[in-house]
Amino acid sequence: MDIVPQLILNSIIAGAIYALVALGFNLIYGATKFFNLAHGVVAAIGGYIVFYLSKTLGLNLYLSVATGVLLAGFAGYLLDKLIYLPLRRKKASNMILLVASLGAFTAIQAIIAIVFTSQFQTLSRNFGSQKIFEVSCPVALRSICYGVGGVITQTQLIIFISGMVIMGALVIVLKKTMFGKMVRAISDDEEVARIVGINTNKIIGYVFFIGSAIAGLAGILVGFDTGIEPTMGMNLLLKGVIASVIGGVGNIYGGVLGAFLIGFVENFGIWKISGEWKDAIAFAVLIVFLIFRPRGIIKK
Amino acid sequence: MKKIVTGIAVVLLIVVGIFAFNKKSDTVSKEPIKIGVILPLSGDAAFIGEAAKNSAILAKEGFKETKNDYELIFEDDQADSKKTVSAFRKLVDLDKIRAVGTGFAGPGNAIAPLSEKEKIIHFSIASDLNIAKNKKFVFNHWIKPENEAKVYIEKAKNQGLKKIAMLNTNQQGIIAVRDAILEEDPTLFILKDELIAPQEKDFRTNIIKAKNNGADSFLLMLLPGQLVSAVKQIREMNIKVPITSVESFEYDQEAVPLLEGEWYVTAADPSSDFTLKFKERFNSLPQPGSAYAYDVIRMLITSFEEGGNNENVAKTLSGMKNFPGVTGALSVDEEGNIDSRAVVKKITGGKFVEVK
Q1: Interchain pair A118, B194: CB under 8 A
Q2: Mind listing the pLDDT tens digit for each residue in A36-55?
Q3: Å between B353 CA and nearest CA of chain A
Q4: pTM score of the predicted model
Q5: What pairing do the DSSP bridges indicate for beta strands B164-169 and B217-221?
Q6: First and final CA of chain B: distance in angstroms?
Q7: DSSP symbol at A118
Q8: Alpha helix ranges (H) inside chain B
Q9: Displacement of CA B76 from its chain's centroid (Å)
Q10: Minimal CA–CA distance to B269: which of B132, B143, B126?
Q11: Inter-chain touch A151–B258, beta carbons under 8 Å
């Protein structure tokens, strides 16, 4: 049974990564009502910017990460201004926007591969330099759980904390600020929001910036945890989308809940069977939700 | 009469002219025998593909005087089977190749049936012996998985390993080696069916399963990119048991610094003469598979020199015994495979050093 605490930790780590992707994805979906598939490649942009600044140019790590997050946000902003906004102005359907986002995803992914090669790269400079925390049984419960525990690395802890902090910040911004109210108004009905004087295109542009910056941070943290490659965006995107759909697409809490559910189901699912079933398990859960609860755990 | 003589002279002139022209064009338009070489020239395995490409060039340059002219046409497939098939179609339909070489099991398996159908001589460099099985025009050059398995098991027993946790990518070449190892001695292993999807980079749950089962070591046969993640995650989880492999260590340069002192099984080094020639010509060292690529091109050109159509060339290759290769005396067995010697190597100072 001593495998369980580490399995729980592994599930939390995986869930936190998916949550970061789902948070940005849900924020953008909430405002625009289309599946922005380019969200995945924006995560890769974040990772590669840090790789270039930190490993190639030797820039300060924190500065590189901050630049990576901002530039990933800017990339998302540009995608909106250059591709999605002109399409929205032409009254393009959500399907057209989805196809356009797929095109953007594929093109940017190919450009990354051309510039940086397809080779897998690690962001962490020195292996072994990061702290590893041992999570053990609380003293008060030693009599029943002595020897039970697991390990979590500094990066994984940052991933988890980032996910929670960003979720909290998004909730506060959306509920307590004027900007948040405008985003919610657009999310409820863009046409009405425009009639009451909200500059919807400007607000959606900001939403793209924030959502993409969160995706960029996800890509950077994944880069530190495992590594980066041009195709990393697709896997992250798929898990983020599954988490969003399961939790309730467009819902901030739902996305996070769905992400942790997927993290737990995947990791506990392969406890007794081969690891290659991981993706099959995640998609099976998605299908079950689509059939029996298509609007997710928390309806928007 | 004058008209008749003039007519005969003109006809003769035309006949001589045509003859002379034809003779000249025969020399000028002597078509080279085209050999397509499909390799990962970009992507994770590009360092292997580039070195194999250089080996092929070196092999061709080694033939000073040949009956035929030869042209090598290189295509990049990033070791992606779909791209291999596209490259193969281009080579066959547009370039009119007579032979093709591929690297890795996926690409080899993808075009082997097509080569057989098109009667194109296909030489694969891959660890899956089934690529050439029951095919007349397809050949394969690698160490036989059985040989690697024997050497691995012997070394593992010497090291006193009894519970080796298997963590392998679900890929044809890797499965072939895994099956051979389990055939040799299944009792040394745990998590025998633990396979990983090729895109997976999170191995934490697989690793904790191994730890929970009392693993005293790991056998990692993973793709480039996966290996470095797996090794990192094993060490981050404070698991300090030996990490072993068959071949994988040489394909993931990022992982090498993390594997200092660990042993693995792979092909024996090529002759020092080949390594020296390679270094002189390209100012770099050969990579895994480079020597095979060199031998394959030499065997192909030697067979084409015997003449005849591809049926004859395939027959010549099938009958090849003790061909002087840089990896030893090479013989093609009844299933079209060429075997090589397996050895134990250790990562010492970031280099792959044979354990004598």
Answers
A1: no
A2: 999 999 999 999 999 999 98
A3: 23
A4: 0.79
A5: parallel
A6: 92
A7: S
A8: 2-28, 46-61, 81-93, 105-118, 145-158, 172-184, 204-212, 226-236, 272-282, 290-305, 310-318
A9: 14
A10: B143
A11: no
